[in-house]
Amino acid sequence: MSVPLPDQRLHPWSWLFVMLMQLRQFLLPLVALLVFGGRGDRDEMWGYLTTLIVIAVLVVISVLQYLTFRYHIGHDAISVRSGIVARNRREIPFARIHNVVVHQNPLHRLFGVAELRLESAGGHRPEAEMRVLKLSQALALEQLVRQRGQQPPPLPDAESASAVAPLAPSDALPASVLLQLNTRDVLRIGLLSNRGWVAVLAAWGASYQFFPRGYVGDVIEHHGREVFGYASHLHPATWVWVVAALFAVGGFWLLLRMLSVLLALLRYHGFQLTEHERRLTVSSGLLTRMRSSVARRRIQAWTLRETALQRWLGRRQLRIDNAAGVGSDDDRRDLRELAPLATPTACDDLLRHLLPRLQWPPARWNGVARRGWWRLCLPAWVIVPLLTAGAVYEVGAWGTVLLAWLPWSAFRAYREIARMGYHLDADYVAVRGGWWTRWWRLAELDKLQSLRLSRSPLDRLMGTATVWLDTAGATGSIALRLRFLPEGEARAVLETLNQALARR
């Protein structure tokens, strides 16, 4: 006779992590209260007392959230109860959970706990966030969600009723490693990326938050005058100024590279892509460990991308769009990068392994007419002359330097349209584009949700059309579209895709 599993609580230290999360949200107001609250005629003690009261309230709220949070593992769903004043109960079917994220920051690792997030298709927020569980309990619950999301197992009996159901024998089988990055690969990611700008801009914005208005600008102006004043007294030659400027630019570039490498180490250290029972899992992170997984059937679109520098060094990246919750790149909730940086051969092998019916790369790409190349540089030919006119008005003849962008934009447009093309067969549709930065984007026909044929005024003038393809959850920066096709060809492609949707 089987009995249901009892309701489960979070880890006893979960209230501490909830409180720290809330304190982080109130950090700036609390700092401002401590720094500026005691100024003027007010007693400084009131500022400290108010801060202590706020922290005490947050502690009480965190403890109450721990005491009122329960989750129950059923046969085909997880039930979550939460709320202090207003009580909420949420039923989350296992089949609806598309992504499972196990998150560990350094404090989590110190206490041996982890945060578990359950995400569904199209959701901008997780279906459930469990802050926090014991690490072994979180990993076991992750395995249980995967197993029951694919095929609901029988209900556990009384002997197996515990905090989390034990793993099935099939879950004990080792996962196959599809891609693993060593430290050299991670360093290469940092050197080839521009993530250092994120740290610089974040530090710049934080300086304006923590320091009085105008203080940062005054400091830069003051020290800049001192440096240039001292240098002008030395009467250096022109070549000395040029060398100094080159050293300054080179030093700033080196700083950006170092910051990019540091961010890459924090994010991609120990990167490993594994496959287990048709589910992909990525784990990475130096201080904060992130483990995210997605079922292969939930992947909606695939994108290969390479910058000019990556191409020269024989590297490429593979990203996916899936049907799980979509967060920002910084949030990193859903699994997006299958290969942050790998050789083209490794990326192609991954595609062929995960899409067995895919013939990649295609033997033949359908191109577009090159006579429409000027359409790609038309915005530059409109905007640059206007900017040049404004620059000439402000600085004189030197403003005409901006016109040098026009031949470059024309050359780039011609090269881009020469690479533009698409491939369509009975199973997949793929598009490619770009020249300086090249990309390939593909999707299974079974994943297409809607089709659209559009014609702009320029399309009607040139006799062309664009076919837009939409898949659930595909939100990549590169649109899945077939551009600049002759109208008859575009309508034929649309009809072929419509028939594929009807067969599905």
What's the SSE blueprint?
Elements: H1 14-25, H2 27-36, H3 44-68, E1 70-73, E2 77-82, E3 88-93, E4 97-104, H4 106-111, E5 113-120, E6 128-134, H5 135-150, E7 176-180, H6 183-192, H7 196-210, H8 215-233, H9 238-268, E8 272-275, E9 279-284, E10 289-295, E11 299-306, H10 308-312, E12 316-322, E13 337-342, H11 344-354, E14 366-367, H12 374-395, H13 405-419, E15 421-424, E16 428-433, E17 438-444, E18 448-454, H14 457-462, E19 464-471, E20 481-486, H15 487-503
Antiparallel strand pairs: 1-2, 2-3, 4-5, 4-10, 5-6, 7-8, 8-9, 9-10, 11-12, 11-17, 12-13, 14-15, 15-16, 16-17, 18-19, 19-20
Helix pairs in contact: 1-3, 6-9, 7-9, 12-13
Description of the structure:
The chain is 44% helix and 24% strand. Strands 6-5-4-10-9-8-7 form a seven-stranded antiparallel sheet. It has a seven-stranded antiparallel sheet with strand order 13-12-11-17-16-15-14. It has a three-stranded antiparallel sheet with strand order 1-2-3. With 504 residues, it is an alpha+beta fold. The protein has 15 helices and 20 strands. It has helices spanning 14-25, 27-36, 44-68, 106-111, 135-150, 183-192, 196-210, 215-233, 238-268, 308-312, 344-354, 374-395, 405-419, 457-462, 487-503; strands at 70-73, 77-82, 88-93, 97-104, 113-120, 128-134, 176-180, 272-275, 279-284, 289-295, 299-306, 316-322, 337-342, 366-367, 421-424, 428-433, 438-444, 448-454, 464-471, 481-486.
